[in-house]
Write a structure and sequence with these properties.
With 376 residues, the chain is mainly α. The chain has two domains: 210 residues, Orthogonal Bundle (Citrate Synthase, domain 1); 98 residues, Cytochrome p450-Terp, domain 2 (Orthogonal Bundle), CATH 1.10.230. Helix content is 57%, strand content 3%. It has a three-stranded antiparallel sheet. β1 and β2 form a beta hairpin. α2 runs parallel beside α16, α4 packs across α6 and α9 crosses α16. The protein is globular, with a radius of gyration of 22 Å. The structure holds coenzyme A. Coenzyme A binds next to loops.
């Protein structure tokens, strides 16, 4: 007989550590980074300022931001070896597998890979933040038979990313919508990928390993992969007027509806109204309301029938599509943002570390004797 223990499957409701990086308040559908409401950060700051905030605990002043941006811009270039590795990837590989492998390779090249001191971890985090968009953009272009576009140190973070993907910088409204998505994706307490990164760090393994662990966890459709799954789902629905019938069929098959539900938020995801606002702006900029109109029907019926609200991936998926990104790029873009949150947690875990090692409740066979092969 196995002993009676309380197993919290999926670690539901378990507090695994203290953290001062961000706070989710499901009662009020709100989220703060270092004490600042994400909605306010979206309207009054930009992604680089938020990256600084997550890593330093305070918003930067002008001089601090300039130094941060200069360091980020100086580290964007991929080494010739990384570019060679990217060229060797199978053309049909998923970009999440490409960015996971590229960052793993960058770790092997990084002169400080094994130094897990706080100062070295911060320098490596900056190098990963700067290089990841270059690798995501280069992998995307190579998979389409196009040559990568080198980063441009004259351009800010978001503008540079668009330039590396498309060879041009879009209108300011598009940059703003993208920047907002990057802020909203940056951090979200002990989600699965962040916890994975903290588990890796708790063994005193290096920053690149922790980020690679985070990327592996983020790929799944129950986590970051949902933004791609949302767009695939919306593409299956021919028009908004058949969206309700399509959804009811889904209910009949008891299938998951991607972009809905959340482990922590049960009455609405704090990030959705802001992302929805900017997805609507994208629909206006592009002049295509199909995705937002279909989304509105799905959200209405899901709430009325299942009492389940959309999560951030629901408006982010169509927003990225309207910006012109290929669907398999959506989760790698999430990676480029969440590197900031993962790294903030790696630094926090490292500053007061204890190996993360829970217990398992054994339900297998009682102890027994090994019968020699000749007698089996
Ligand atoms: N579509 C249909 N039903 C859903 C649903 C969805 N997206 N999300 C939750 N539910 C249902 C569950 O089937 C369950 O029903 P039941 O009680 O009849 O079994 C109930 O709502 C509670 O959900 P549960 O699976 O316990 O929630 P969880 O906290 O374990 O899972 C998610 C949270 C995010 C994994 C889950 O909502 C999901 O798979 N969503 C779709 C993927 C997604 O958008 N992920 C991105 C998250 S930010």
């Amino acid at each position: 007989m196995s002993e009676a223990v309380e197993v919290r499957k999926g670690l539901v409701g378990v507090y695994a550590d203290d953290s001062s990086v961000s706070k989710v308040m499901p009662e009020t559908n709100s989220l703060t980074y270092r004490g600042y409401a994400v909605q306010d950060l979206c309207e009054l700051s930009n992604f680089e300022e938020v990256a600084y905030l997550l890593w330093h605990g305070e918003l930067p002043n002008a001089a601090q931001l300039a130094a941060f941006q200069a360091e980020e811009r100086a580290n964007r270039a991929l080494s010739p070896a990384t570019l060679r590795v990217l060229r060797e990837f199978p053309r049909n590989a998923h970009p999440m597998d490409m960015i996971r492998t590229a960052i793993s390779f960058m770790g092997m090249e990084d002169p400080e890979v094994a130094d897990v001191s706080d100062a070295a971890q911060r320098r490596k985090a900056m190098r990963i933040l700067a290089k990841a968009p270059s690798a995501v953009a280069a992998a995307n272009r190579l998979s389409k038979g196009l040559e990568p576009i080198a980063p441009d140190a004259a351009l800010p973070f978001c503008e540079n990313f668009f330039n590396m993907v498309f060879g041009s910088v879009p209108k300011p409204e598009v940059i703003k919508a993208f920047d907002v998505s990057m802020i909203l994706y940056a951090e979200h307490t002990f989600n699965a990928s962040t916890f994975a990164a903290r588990v890796v760090t708790s063994t005193m393994a290096d920053m690149h390993g922790a980020i690679v662990g985070g990327i592996a966890a983020l790929k799944g459709p129950l986590h970051g992969g949902a933004n791609e799954a949302v767009m695939h789902m919306l593409s299956e629905i021919p028009s908004p007027d058949v969206a309700e019938a399509w959804l009811r069929q889904r209910f009949d098959h008891k299938a998951l509806v991607m972009g809905f539900g959340h482990r922590v938020y049960k009455s609405g995801d704090s990030r959705v109204p802001t992302m929805k606002k900017y997805a609507e702006i994208m629909a206006e900029v592009v002049g295509d309301r199909r995705w937002m109109n279909t989304s509105a029907v799905l959200a209405r019926v899901m709430l009325a029938e299942k009492n389940i609200h959309p999560n951030l991936d629901f408006p982010a998926g169509p927003a990225y599509f309207l910006m012109g990104f290929d669907i398999p790029m959506f989760t790698p873009i999430f990676v480029c943002s969440r590197i900031t949150g993962w790294a903030a947690h790696v630094l926090e875990q490292g500053a007061d570390n204890r190996l993360i090692r829970p217990l398992s409740h054994y339900t297998g066979r009682e102890q027994r004797s090994v019968v020699p092969m000749s007698a089996r």
